[in-house]
Amino acid sequence: MFKTLSVALIGIGMSTLAMAAPPVAGEHYKVLDEPVPTHVEDGKIEVTEAFWYGCPHCYNLEDPLNAWVAELPDDVSFQRMPATMGGTWNRHAVAFFAAEQLGIQQDIHEDFFDAIHQEGQQLTDDGDIAAFFSDYGVSEQEAEAALTSFGVKSQVNQAHARMRAMKLMGVPALIVDGRYVITPSSAGSLENMPQIAGALIEQVREERDDAS
To answer: Residue 77 sits in which domain range?
Structure first.
């Protein structure tokens, strides 16, 4: 069962992990027994964030993660993947993929988080989500069509299968190259997660150079 990592984060401070030494497998990150196929061009390194809009830890990760993503080099492809666990989780995953289909996902992402965590909105009803989307240049009718489309349903199912393959037990999580999984508890804090991801990106580069 996916769950937010509230228990794991009790007592964990937000101090930055000193990365004087490389991160250690089994301590700072988990290595998947079976790598998950990535969806990037040859030569690029995929970093995926698994998140849920209703998760307060995912919300608090946004600022440090966005600052890190803004500085990523061209050989790194960052993507977000909404978590699926039924109920509200799935409704928010539907909203994510519908916004993507409508071409407004980047515009609504931060505001959708804010609406839930700052304004107390639930945003689980199609009508409420469609009304929210209508502030971003689409009609409510277009939004409702996207929310109920076969394509969006298929994307939610694919995300669910991908999360199961990643063996994720909570969010947020960062997955590097479909193999390395970083969680707040393994990283020591939310702020440390991007730092460890950066070290693993460099590790992947070195592995590819050695193999070539």
So the answer is: 1-83+168-212
